[in-house]
């Protein structure tokens, strides 16, 4: 399964919502040194109740809009 995610780094609160089929994820981590991406993977793993290794960023590694692949376990 591939989902589209819009990331909001450096937010005051952590949250996940869905709008028009796009997941909007607010993260506390800053976009430097891959901190926000690692936090995103951790948060999505908890949200979908899967392991972190089942999640990979396939497009948009340095962008706010990302395509995330979630593999079946």
Automatic annotation (TrEMBL):
SUPFAM superfamilies assigned to the protein according to its UniProt record, in alphabetical order = YggU-like
Q: Which Gene3D superfamilies match?
A: YggU-like
Q: InterPro entries per the record?
A: DUF167, YggU-like_sf
Q: Which family does it belong to?
A: Belongs to the UPF0235 family.
What is the name of this protein? Answer: Uncharacterized protein
**Organism expressing this protein natively:** candidate division WS6 bacterium GW2011_GWC1_33_20
